[in-house]
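Structure first, sequence second, as always.
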């Protein structure tokens, strides 16, 4: 089971977000504590941020996070007020490759998904082929259920002419629940529009993967942090309620929405 994290607050370097916490994503890659299936998350990693011009940007690598000699230099040099990151445990049938490594971005949104869509290849992908517009499907580069989920979110945004990720997330989850035909979907996702972070802890026909947040952790003063497993030993961490979406805004208290 993949591990993910996000940060929103004052500008920090990637080192502080990704590498320095006591239970960082590097540690969660080789020693996760709350996964039910995978013992390692060694099938690639990536991180995303926003440029000064407000465009989403990503760095991905299909190798294990601990094997990337470029990461220490990047981690010291890159600064942002918003980060998303992910370490991967590949689902069978969805190969390890650059195209299949998250985060995914479209210039406006950043997206990461921890979970799986059961029977994706035989059941859901054909359905999505019928639903997705050709211009949306043409932008898909890999073959993961996660990237198709992101494609569905992007289509819902364009169809509804609505740039609010929470609206697209709720609609996508409703559609998937109708299409699953009794199969399971694990749907922890984090999406950002460059201003806010939207974190969902959800599942259909199964148990929700773990997801936590903290808004007053001394390691990230003034920031909001979300992660599959607590990054620090602080008591500031709380579980995201199951079947809920949380919206994190730097100027407001977190908003909780039932899914």
């Amino acid at each position: 089971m993949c591990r993910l994290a996000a940060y929103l607050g004052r500008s920090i370097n990637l080192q502080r977000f990704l590498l320095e916490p006591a239970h960082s994503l590097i540690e969660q890659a080789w020693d996760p504590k709350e996964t039910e299936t995978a013992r390692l998350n060694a099938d690639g990693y990536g991180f995303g941020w926003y440029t000064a011009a407000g465009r989403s940007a990503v760095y991905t690598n299909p190798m294990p996070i601990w094997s990337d000699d470029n990461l220490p230099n990047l981690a010291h040099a890159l600064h942002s007020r918003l980060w998303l990151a992910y370490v991967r445990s590949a689902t069978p049938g969805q190969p390890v490759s650059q195209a299949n490594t998250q985060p995914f971005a479209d210039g406006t949104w950043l997206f990461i998904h921890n979970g799986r869509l059961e029977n994706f290849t035989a059941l859901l992908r054909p359905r999505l082929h019928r639903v997705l517009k050709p211009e949306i499907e043409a932008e898909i580069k890999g073959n993961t259920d996660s990237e198709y989920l992101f494609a569905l979110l992007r289509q819902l945004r364009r169809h509804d002419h609505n740039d609010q990720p929470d609206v697209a997330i709720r609609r996508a989850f409703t559609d998937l629940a109708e299409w699953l035909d009794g199969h399971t979907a694990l749907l922890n996702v984090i999406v950002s529009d460059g201003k806010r972070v939207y974190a969902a802890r959800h599942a259909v026909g199964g148990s929700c993967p773990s997801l936590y947040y903290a808004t007053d952790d001394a390691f990230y003063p003034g920031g909001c942090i979300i992660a599959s497993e607590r990054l620090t030993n602080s008591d500031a961490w709380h579980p995201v309620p199951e079947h809920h979406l949380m919206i994190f805004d730097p100027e407001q208290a977190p908003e909780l929405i039932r899914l």
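Margin note: The mean pLDDT is 96.
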